[in-house]
Write a structure and sequence with these properties.
Keywords: Cell membrane, Membrane, Transmembrane, Transmembrane helix. Pfam families: BPD_transp_2 (PF02653). It comes from Vibrio amylolyticus. It is a multi-pass membrane protein. This is ABC transporter permease. The chain is mainly alpha-helical. It is 68% helix and 1% strand. The protein contains 14 helices and two strands. Helix 4 runs parallel beside helix 6, helix 5 runs antiparallel to helix 6 and helix 13 runs antiparallel to helix 14. The chain is globular, with a radius of gyration of 23 Å. The N and C termini lie far apart (54 Å).
């Protein structure tokens, strides 16, 4: 009698552990949901569908800026110039479009067609992005210093053009269309659609393209990336131009929405964009993080700000509360990663 034995593999199936990046993204999402539920208990009428939508729609500008800032942070670089670019591009779009026959200096512009005014404003934004890349890549000056300087230069130019005030007269009728345009007959405005499309495109670039992978490689180990044949300088230049372009579009849309060019528009937006990126788990040293995490970081900041307003806290206490939330969130992320590695 032939005795055969068949060995069966009864070992349990080994499940792949999620990556540290996905782990932090899920943690940030969990914190965002948890904070929203806590705020719903503490703040009257907070738990409403419209309020949930407002957390995103009211912060479309900061989330849009956060995309460009996030890519640069992942590459190991800062961009604190975006707030100044928002002001500059908005002021330029107004100045270029204003009629030449104004009664005063602030009501007189170059009289260009609106589409040319938009192109000119975007070129101004890209010029600031190009300066960022030039000093960071060519002269190897730390990006935090360079972009702080260009932020002040951009806002300073905007203040000179507006004489420290704003330009809001003698504008063509089509100037306010983009900022108030409703999408497909819905209540969604075009700037919100722009933010959503930008966010989805950023996820695709980050996860599915070589460009996205290179960004991580440069941030994780720039020397190794260079030795492997990657042109770090060209890639970082593209990232700065992309971030400046996004900031320029945001500035143009805001100026269209308010039908004015204001030199203080976008004030502190650069820091909000940096904060939501850090809240979302993007490493300040580069090489780690995601735009999805940045999005949930924006939700965390929006929930804290909205809840503080609902509790009628003074602006000073709101600022302190936001600072505490940022500190606790980043500390919790660091602790969670260290605990996971044990």
């Amino acid at each position: 009698m032939l005795n055969t034995s068949i060995k069966l593999n009864h070992s349990p199936v080994q499940h792949r552990r999620v990556s540290d990046q996905m782990y932090i993204t899920l943690l940030v999402a969990f914190v965002a949901v948890g904070l929203f539920l806590v705020a719903s208990v503490l703040v009257p009428n907070f738990f409403q569908v419209q309020n949930m939508l407002n957390l995103v729609t009211n912060n479309w500008a900061v989330i849009s800026l956060g995309v460009g800032v996030s890519f640069l942070l992942i590459s190991g670089n800062f961009d604190l110039s975006v707030g100044g670019i928002v002001a500059l591009s908005g002021v330029l779009s107004v100045w270029f479009a204003q009629s030449v026959t104004g009664a005063s200096t602030l009501s007189s512009g170059l009289g260009l067609p609106y589409w040319m005014a938009i192109v000119g404003a975007l070129l101004g934004a890209l010029l600031i992005g190009g300066l960022n890349a030039l000093f960071v890549v060519r002269f190897r000056i730390p990006s935090i210093i360079v972009t702080l300087g260009t932020m002040m230069v951009a806002r300073g130019i905007a203040q000179v053009i507006t004489q420290g005030s704003q330009r809001n007269t003698n504008l063509p009728s089509e100037f306010g269309v983009l900022g108030s345009l409703k999408v497909f007959g819905t209540s969604m405005q075009f700037p919100v659609l722009f933010m959503l499309l930008l966010f989805l495109a950023a996820i695709f670039i980050e996860r599915k393209t070589v460009f996205g992978r290179i960004t991580y490689w440069i941030g994780a180990n720039p020397e190794a990336a260079k030795l492997s044949g990657i042109d770090n300088a060209k890639h970082i230049t593209y990232l700065y131009l992309f971030s400046a372009l996004v900031a320029g579009i945001v500035g143009i849309l805001l100026s269209s929405e308010f039908k004015s060019g204001f030199s203080n528009r976008g004030l502190l937006m650069e820091f909000d964009a940096l904060v939501i990126a850090l809240l979302g788990g993007i490493a300040i040293a580069g090489g780690f993080g995601s735009v999805i995490g940045m999005f949930f970081g924006a939700i965390i900041l929006a929930v804290v700000t909205s809840a503080a307003t609902g509790l009628t806290l003074s602006p000073d206490w709101q600022f302190i509360l936001r600072a505490v939330a940022v500190f606790l969130a980043i500390t919790a992320q660091t602790w969670a990663l260290s605990l996971r590695s044990k």
